[in-house]
Write a structure and sequence with these properties.
Blueprint lengths: L1 H4 L12 H16 L11 H5 L6 H17 L4 H11 L3 H4 L18
Helix pairs in contact: 4-5
Amino acid sequence: ARVVADPLLKLYFKNVDVAGLQLKFQKYVTYALNDRENAYDGPTMYEAHAGRNITDEAVDLFLEILRETMTDEKIPAETVEQIVRKLTPVKDVVVDKFVFPGTYVYKPDKRA
């Protein structure tokens, strides 16, 4: 809920089945925590994020909100750090291009 309420991140989730995406994300994290990312049967991180104009800033913000949410939900700090460590390298796959910090580059989908 915090991610889709954020002014920047909500732009990436327009016309997206957020409930379905949450289930996929939970499943992916479960596989990742067990070092079984390759066994995940959903789309690859690249396939799922290609062409969405995702910036470094957006990924950093997503991870920050995720960390805060897990902490607020009383998930043990060790587990929070393990999840963030597993997800941080995914940034190299989901970001479409390098964007200088502070640059706003979101391009809305004109089909929407």
